[in-house]
Design goal:
The protein is mostly helical and about 425 residues long. It has helices at about 5-20, 20-40, 40-50, 55-60, 65-70, 75-80, 85-90, 90-115, 120-150, 155-185, 185-195, 195-205, 210-220, 225-230, 235-240, 245-255, 255-265, 265-275, 275-305, 310-330, 335-365, 370-380, 385-410, 415-425. It has a single domain, classed as Growth Hormone, Chain: A (Up-down Bundle). Helices cover about 80% and strands about 0% of the residues.
């Protein structure tokens, strides 16, 4: 009789949730979600700095991210409108997924053709186009992921999505830097655009979400005015009538303020310190990715031990402290080991936070309004930081210097910690025993 040792059985049980098609699909969706963001974030910052664009103009490009923050305005259309013919063939969610994937790929390729030094206004238009389609891609990716995951897969799916987002963002960013160094930015962006393809593969793997199809079948029988109300009013009304809704929204708005300001300006610091593109690719992208994946793994273990709410609190504290390492690096100069330490700690903390905070935001969403509510919550999470980054961060850096600027971002992270502590006291218990990533 062939007996499987207990330790092998336990490893098999531990790995089995990750190998189910829904979490694998979440990984593929995350790969595609991270790439457009990287193209208009750190990659574009490096490209603009290299082209001699001044700091105020570079930081002003952070305003393009506001399209991500306002994506909840058109998310209801993704939730309700069917694309003719294609939706009948593959389903509503997958039809949007395939169309927006193609548009995102084309926008990134176009952005690579623009020379910012020759025509900065055209670069603004290209960045806005990538941001719009990237934000729309996020709407359908998040909705497709949440609709496809079973309730018991929420933790695993959130973790796999974070793995995918980090791999996609870092992979596209590193590929762009390495290709740009050797073949130019047009080739770099064309190669990075291929990261839109995994989402299409996820759609083929998972099929149209069964739970979503059942909901749409019921909604088709509703009168037209009822459907309009359900599309535009009900998602927000549903959320705002919950206990502590305004406290939750305030937390969502402020909790990433310091983190957003610190990360969106980090490539400016590296350019000022004199790090090469290869060093940035190896340490900021490559080593940072390893640290993030380690953080996601450890975050999953902590999630299992402490539950969702306590893990969110721990991650908020770690992310606040990580901003201090940015200030420390600013005093060190272009020292690779110091860059590795800074990137390692910051990305490790972000990995833990990604697991817990994405699971928390997903848990807050009603299945009837997945795209709209998650788009609203995820958009609000960084709107304040991106607005300040685009309007005043460049001036703050020039007047305060990088060291004091990063000390300021550390202080700005404290209100989010305090607000979540208050939420832990007031909110009903979260599903602390949910399956963890």
């Amino acid at each position: 009789m062939n007996i499987v040792p207990p330790e092998r059985r336990s490893w098999g049980n531990a790995l089995r949730p990750y190998l189910q098609k829904e979490p694998v699909g979440a990984l593929l969706l995350g790969l595609s979600s991270g790439a457009p963001f990287a193209m208009i974030a750190s990659t574009l910052t490096t490209r603009l700095a290299e082209s001699g664009i001044d700091k105020k103009t570079v930081t002003a490009f952070a305003l393009t991210f506001l399209l991500y923050n306002f994506k909840f305005l058109w998310a209801p259309f993704i939730d309700r409108i069917r694309i003719p013919l294609l939706a009948d063939a593959v389903g509503q969610r997958r039809a949007w997924l395939y169309v927006i994937a193609a548009c995102t790929l084309a926008a990134i390729v176009w952005m690579g053709q623009v020379d910012p030094a020759a025509d900065i206004s055209r670069m603004v238009a290209a960045a806005l186009t990538v941001a719009f389609f990237g934000a729309t891609f996020d709407i359908i990716i998040d909705a497709f992921r949440i609709d496809s995951l079973k309730p018991e897969q929420l933790g695993v799916g959130s973790g796999m999505s974070q793995y995918g987002w980090r791999l996609g963002s870092a992979g596209a960013g590193a590929l762009a830097l390495l290709a740009a160094e050797r073949s130019g930015w047009d080739t770099a962006y064309a190669a990075a655009a291929l990261f839109a393809v995994p989402a299409v593969l996820a759609g083929m793997l998972l099929g149209e979400p069964v739970r979503r199809t059942a909901l749409l079948a019921r909604e088709k029988a509703e009168p037209f005015l009822t459907r309009v109300k359900t599309t535009f009013v009900a998602p927000l009304a549903d959320f705002l009538t919950r206990p502590n809704a305004w406290l939750v929204l305030l937390f969502v708005v402020v909790h990433k303020l310091g983190d957003t300001l610190a990360n969106l300006s980090f490539r400016l610091l590296l350019a000022d310190l004199g790090f090469s593109k290869d060093s940035i690719a190896v340490y900021d992208v490559g080593f940072g990715l390893v640290a993030t994946l380690a953080g996601i793994f450890v975050g999953g273990i902590i999630y299992t031990r402490l539950g969702m709410m306590k893990t969110v609190m721990l991650s908020l504290i770690l992310m606040a402290v990580s901003n201090l390492s940015f200030a420390w690096l600013a005093t060190m100069g272009p020292v690779n080991w110091a860059l590795a330490v800074t990137i390692g700690f910051e990305n490790f903390a972000s990995g833990i936070g990604g697991v817990a905070i994405v699971a928390y935001l997903s848990w807050l969403c009603d299945l009837r309004f997945t795209a709209t509510q998650f788009a609203l919550l995820s958009a609000m999470a960084s709107i304040l930081g991106r607005f300040i980054q685009g309007t005043t961060a460049g001036s703050l850096i020039e007047s305060l210097g990088f060291v004091n600027f990063y000390l300021l971002t550390t202080l700005l992270a404290v209100p989010g910690v305090l607000l979540f502590w208050l939420l832990m006291k007031r909110e009903p218990p979260a599903p602390e025993t949910a399956e963890a990533p």
